[in-house]
Amino acid sequence: MKVGCMLALLALSLAPMPTHAIEATQGDVLALPIQQSKQQPDLFCLQRHWPVLPAGKGRWRGWLGIDLRTPPATYTCHWRSDHRQWDTKLTVHAGHFRISRITVRKAMAEFDPATLSRIRREVRALKQCYGMHVPSRPDQIRMQLPVQGIESTPFGARRFVNGVERSPHSGIDIAAPLGTPVHAPLGGKILYVANMYLNGNTVVIGHGLGLVSVLSHMSQVKVRTGDWVRTGDIVGTVGQTGRATGPHLHWSVRFRHARVNPHSLLPERALAGEENLP
Ligand SMILES: [Zn+2]
Fold it and tell me: What is the CA(270)–ligand 1 centre distance, in A?
């Protein structure tokens, strides 16, 4: 064997990442595997750092979320570990999102200045939760459905309220009978409890690692800000508070601020990118 060839093989065996590009769709949560690294590597992609968790025997797995509105393109993710750096190409495809039209009473579509400032204040409070540090980390990233029911509005739907286009649907709506218990999709700390003008009775759970769940339109809330909950604990009941046309739970998930599809965290669907795991 020629020296050049041996060197090439050696370089290959040290390469900590597969070189193929990762394919994803807007809203996906991805698990990126790394073969071997003594140190915990750092992953920087789409202008943010992402959690890297042990995957056994010196292996690691990087987790990242593709925001709903990430422009379709090929991006470069940067890894750094053991004094080495390498890249992974990430191709983001456009999601195929449904169009949803609802008709509500005027007070829920056109706002007077006082209501508008209340809505803005509430949106700011919600946004603050997405960046809050939670002093715990989940042992796994997967979640469970907070309530069984019928998915009435899917993730990413383009929404028209009384004929006017609004921001896209950043979560999923699950229609269920009034009073059905709502469970924590994953354990964590209650970061915010409020009766919001549009979202109605809302509970925000910080799960750690920058994962945050928002549960809205509840009839009753059973937790307080600062409480800790475990996966499956009851946090409230299904309702129709705020801007809702029927009893349902709105569940959205932020992952380091990215609006991700809750379905990509549920066990019944293999996580996007999981087929790439070693
Ligand atoms: Zn919703």
Answer: 23
